[in-house]
Design a protein that fits this description.
11 strands; 0% helix; 4-stranded antiparallel sheet
């Protein structure tokens, strides 16, 4: 079993930066893929970014390319999501998710481990 805990979400202004963290514990594996998803009010969960833990291959949604960066710290079993140039449309609950397969996928159903989420609010 893998436990994921997100942190870092808060209220910010348009154009601000923020860094989200996802700390993993339990039976982790270097073969896992970890992704960030977000869900805004009235909308479905959308994939934001993903990373292959071992190889470091990354995926970004078009809406965040050039603004968000996903990275990992092997020693801390933590995945980060630094976010720059935040926009009101980035407002959502951000979730960290993991799957026991090295391939990064964008469909939520493929991820079996989820954190509780952290709220990011970008005010204009």
């Amino acid at each position: 079993q893998v436990q994921l805990v997100e942190s870092g979400g808060e209220l910010v202004q348009v154009g601000d930066s923020l860094r989200l963290s996802c700390a993993a514990s339990g039976r982790t594996s270097s073969s896992y893929a970890i992704s960030w998803f977000r869900q805004a009010p009235g909308k479905e969960r959308d994939s934001v970014a993903g990373i292959n833990w071992h190889g470091g291959n990354t995926y970004y949604a078009d809406s965040v390319k050039g603004r968000f960066t996903i990275s990992r710290d092997n020693a801390q079993n933590t995945v980060y999501l630094p976010m720059n140039s935040l926009k009101p449309e980035d407002t959502a609950v951000y979730y960290c998710a993991a799957r026991s397969n090295p391939n990064v996928l964008t469909t939520p159903a493929w991820y079996m481990y989820w954190g509780q989420g952290t709220q990011v609010t970008v005010s204009s």
